[in-house]
Design a protein that fits this description.
The chain is an alpha/beta fold. It has eight helices and seven strands; from the N terminus they run αββββαβαββααααα. Strands 1, 2, 3, 4, 5, 6 and 7 form a seven-stranded mixed sheet that branches. A hairpin with a 2-residue loop joins β2 and β3. About 7% of the residues have low confidence.
Length: 257
């Protein structure tokens, strides 16, 4: 009961800080994680009156953003999230490609009252572009960026049409928002590590068109390992039963692209 009262008090503070009509019942916080643009993953965490709603967390495998473009990653993540929400709410159609982790039980969670994104004006601008694309309206969105020297407690908050502002270093709402931001960061990093680990154990032959289970088995039996296949010549690859010269050249070129 005490925890519930404390959470209610914090949400009342969030309402005041961001000028909401009521204490938020659903806050979504977004962050992304990658290493030099490799296997980028976006993470969404959810919090509300009952604290963190871990069953509502979602991850996004970023598809279109290239390199280290954090702005594009944020734009893609939010565009996919809210295009799906707008489409489902307005038409009942579910034609969009899945946007969340395929293991999720609920692909169309309710509309949030507040969105927080990790970043500054650039990330906020990308998020607003995603909103415009999806046609979703009536959601307050804010970016939270680290202060000078990335000092915790000196975060700047960015909202559309308002100058950046800071909260007092000992403000309870600041501590709460830091906790939300840090949880989103933790979740995004964990999701990215899981994606990288999965990519490591996947067989590289799976990415080559024309290689099904039978040909993959024949290649592995012939060469003994994916590494040996990678190092084989086109002629050696063509010597495997079921592998044509054209497919052998495709495999050879794939590993040298």
């Amino acid at each position: 009961q005490a925890e519930s009262a404390a959470e209610t008090e914090l949400l009342l503070g969030v309402q005041e800080v961001f000028g909401l009509e009521a204490p938020p019942r659903r806050i979504e916080v977004y962050d992304n994680s990658h290493i030099s643009g490799s296997k980028p993953v976006g993470g969404m965490i959810v919090a509300g009156p009952r604290g963190f709603e871990k069953g509502q967390y979602r991850k996004f495998n970023i598809k279109s953003a290239a390199g280290n473009d954090d702005f594009a990653m944020m734009r893609e993540m939010l565009t996919r999230r809210f295009a799906r929400l707008a489409n489902t709410k307005e038409t009942g159609d579910d034609a969009h490609a899945p946007i969340f982790d395929e293991t999720a039980q609920d692909d169309t969670p309710e509309k949030p009252d507040l969105i927080l994104i990790d970043g500054g004006p650039g990330q906020l601008s990308s998020a607003l572009e995603a909103f415009a694309t999806s046609g979703v309206e009536g959601i307050t969105i804010a970016a939270i960026s680290k202060g000078p020297d990335r000092d915790a407690g000196r975060e700047n908050f960015h909202l559309p049409g308002r100058p950046p502002f800071m909260l007092e270093p000992n403000h309870p709402v600041l501590f709460y928002l830091q906790r939300l931001r840090d949880e989103a960061h933790r979740f995004a990093i964990g999701s990215h590590r899981a994606r990288r680990s999965k990519a490591i154990v996947e067989n590289p032959l799976d990415a080559i068109e024309g290689i099904g289970a039978r040909r993959k088995r024949a290649l592995l039996l012939h060469f003994g390992s994916a590494k040996a296949i990678r190092n084989a010549s086109a002629a050696d690859l063509a010597a495997v039963e079921g592998v044509s010269e054209a497919l052998a050249r495709r495999i050879y070129d794939h590993f040298r692209a």
